[in-house]
Design goal:
This protein is an alpha/beta fold and 367 residues long. Helix 7 packs across helix 8. It is elongated, with a radius of gyration of 24 Å.
Length: 367
């Protein structure tokens, strides 16, 4: 019989209260719209089952694949569920019928699948326009003919209209794409869905029936560093925390970590933390990346290893073995380190850090 062992001291915590708060914040930015909670990528790494209670105040759930859709239905959700990329093969339509899924149509092949599909219950579809993102969707010139094809199919019930903004988080904004969308959909019936997180927060007054906040409901600013999560009144829905398991005293001239990329220019007290790139913390984070030690701001020292990283304790004489280190999120004393700030130091975005949380990291749900 295996003896029960103590877990390695690293933990991800999902905050249900923060999810509720962020959802309400997005709703307040677009009060006249219904709201999709985007739970693709396993709810941006938070876990669909863990995030569900905090997000069930949404009007619908939008996601990528049938497995995610089945998981949402298994949780008891009976409201709208939207497949953002639609179906990938004809047999997917059978499950769409069985689970009552709405799905995006972005290419002629998907219309062909619907035309060949035998069903007693017509499908609710969202016809996607490529208004400038140049990923999925019909060009404005071909959009109306795609709508006409869909409208003629007995397999199709209601057709909604959808597009995706490429620059809602930047200086270009949404005006150009919005003008393209409006011109191409003039007089076409159907509900509209336009706004992602950035557009919801920055342009929530756009005429639309549905908004689609994703990253914002998880507490990350969609337009960092122009604005922070605090600026948008968003709360971190995920905390990654670990512990110090050793300390070292180093002298001026001593190096820290692989490659000796950090060399101390003065005597330092450092702590070794149970978190590394195998846990999902970015290896490319440089020395000086912020952390919270017992809720007090400090920073990393040297290169991130597979299982460990090093933090500066020189100005924190009370910190030592067992001290809590918050890599991002909310510390025990309530102090917050935004995931956006850590991601920015890594040259990436908060989305990637959330989604990269490693499977070996234990996760707890906090109400």
């Amino acid at each position: 019989m295996l003896q029960k062992t103590m877990p390695r001291p690293i933990l991800a915590t999902i905050h249900t209260d923060a999810l509720r708060h962020n959802l309400a914040r997005c709703r307040s930015a677009a009060p006249d719209c219904r709201l999709w909670a985007i739970v693709k990528a396993n709810a941006y790494g938070h876990g669909i089952e863990r995030a569900f209670e905090g997000l069930r105040g949404a009007d619908g759930f939008a996601l990528l694949d049938l497995d995610e859709a089945q998981r949402v239905r298994a949780l008891g959700w009976r409201g709208p569920v939207l497949l953002l990329e639609g179906v990938f093969e004809a047999r997917d339509l059978e499950l769409c019928s069985r689970l009552d899924l709405w799905h995006t149509v972005h290419c002629n092949e998907q219309i062909d699948m619907l035309a060949s599909h035998k069903t007693n219950v017509p499908h609710r579809v969202f016809l996607k326009m490529n208004s400038g993102m140049n990923r999925l969707g019909f060009t404005p010139e071909r959009y109306r003919s795609a709508w006409t094809r869909l409208d003629a199919l007995p397999q199709v019930d209601e057709i909604s209209l959808i597009t995706h903004f490429s620059d809602a988080d930047g200086e270009l904004g949404v005006d150009q794409q919005m003008a393209v969308f409006v011109a191409a959909t003039q007089e076409l019936p159907g509900e509209r869905s336009l706004c992602n997180s950035a557009a919801t927060l920055r342009h929530g007054d756009l005429a639309s029936d549905w908004v689609r906040p994703g990253i914002a409901i998880y507490g990350s600013a969609p337009d960092f560093p122009q604005r922070s999560a605090t600026d948008w009144n968003l709360q971190p829905a995920m905390t990654l925390s670990a512990r110090i398991i050793a300390t070292q005293e180093i002298r001026a001239g001593d190096s820290v970590g692989y490659g000796s990329t950090f060399v101390a220019d003065h005597a330092m007290h450092i702590g070794i933390v149970t978190c590394g790139y195998a846990d999902g913390y970015p290896r490319v984070c440089p020395s000086g990346t912020p952390v919270l030690v017992n809720g007090v701001r400090s920073h990393t020292v040297g290169r991130v290893s597979m299982d460990m990283l090093v933090v500066d304790l020189t100005a924190l004489p009370q910190a030592g073995f067992g001290s809590e280190v918050t890599l991002w999120g909310r510390a025990a004393n309530g102090a917050v380190l935004s995931i956006d700030e850590v991601a920015h130091r890594a040259g990436t975005v908060g989305y990637e850090l959330m989604c990269a949380l490693a499977q070996r990291v234990p996760v707890q749900l906090e109400a």
